[in-house]
Amino acid sequence: MVMGAPPSVRAEEKTGPVRRASVVAWASLLIVWVVWGSTYLAIRVGVQTIPPLLMAAARNLVAGLIMFPLALRSRRGAARGAGTAGWLPGRAERLGCAIVGVLLLGANAVVGVGERTVPSGLAALLIATVPLWLLGMDAALNHARFGLAPLAGLVLGLAGVALLSGLGGGPGGASALGVVTILGAAATWALGTIMVRRVTLPQNAALASGMQLLIGGVVLAALAAAAGELGSLRLAAVSAQSWAALGYLIVVGSIVAFSAYGIAVRALPTAIVATYAYVNPVIAVLLGTLILNERLTPAMAGGGALIVGAVILVVRRTPSAH
């Protein structure tokens, strides 16, 4: 008969790992807050001397070439351990990853196009409307009913977007076309998020992301070539700052932040993790103002406050479940 551990020891065995997991999860969420907020600044710096579609293609292809083989090897090992042979992604999984990857990564690329004429902080505030787009699309596709808080959030968000766009003359030196372009990227990202639930994807999140990065990167490379970006690229003209921005987006923005998000979303309540939706734009505005000397206009401050408040109202309807 095996003796049980003393109560104090058992308590330490239970609470010790939980506390460590909690610290790791909160540290991971902090990484998501800061890193994803900082990617807007990195994109703004990168597209100064690198064509936006080409930069997005390079970012996703390199990250995918790193993540996909590692995730595929992990899946093969798990299949061998279980005595099964079907470890290669099936046709439905490949198609699902292609649809989601093209939508989500295409949206990222469009942000780069827009940031050629839109400050990074303003771009982040416009992308913060994604939860509002999701709310509207959910109502249109699934006939979902609005609660009072989401409805108020949608109205606030529309008012914020109207203020940010200047009703046709974008604030802070941004072009109206650039503002519309980034709003289109937000809508595309929302559609891609909805498709995640409607298509077949690998259960392994890292494998799904690796496949999406690879497929999306290939499609973006083809679009960059069709747009003439390959022919117009002059490596000697690419600044050291743009190279550094691209490296940051690949390693920190895509690989590190994605891994951190995966840890946080498995260990923290959904409503807590969802706070990145309104923390990211705040970080982006601060970094753009401090590092790139972007002007924070009254329209940006007011519109941004309305959008962040709207997103809080919409996101908080999410149940606090793991």
Mind explaining what this structure looks like?
This protein has 322 residues and is mostly helical. It has a domain at 25-76 and 92-125 and 166-296. It contains 13 helices and no strands. The chain has helices spanning 7-46, 52-82, 91-114, 120-127, 130-142, 148-165, 176-196, 205-226, 229-232, 240-267, 270-273, 276-291, 298-315. Helix 3 (91-114) packs across helix 8, helix 4 packs antiparallel against helix 12 and helix 6 (148-165) runs antiparallel to helix 13. The relative contact order is 0.21.
Please give a quick description of this structure.
The chain is mainly α and 322 residues long. It is built from 13 helices and no strands.
Short descriptors:
13 helices; 77% helix; globular
From the N-terminal CA to the C-terminal CA, the straight-line distance is 37 Å
How large is the radius of gyration? 21 Å
**Beta-strand content:** under 5%
Helix content range: over 70%
Task: Characterize the main sheet.
Answer: none
Low-confidence stretches: 1-15, 318-322
Question: What is the arithmetic mean of pLDDT?
Answer: 82
How many helices in DSSP terms? 13
The tally of beta strands, per DSSP, is 0
Secondary-structure element order, N to C: HHHHHHHHHHHHH
Shape: globular
Which structural class matches the secondary elements?
Answer: mainly alpha
Task: Please specify the SSE layout and strand pairing.
Layout: H1 7-46, H2 52-82, H3 91-114, H4 120-127, H5 130-142, H6 148-165, H7 176-196, H8 205-226, H9 229-232, H10 240-267, H11 270-273, H12 276-291, H13 298-315
Helix pairs in contact: 1-4, 1-10, 1-12, 2-3, 2-8, 2-10, 3-7, 3-8, 4-12, 5-7, 6-13, 12-13
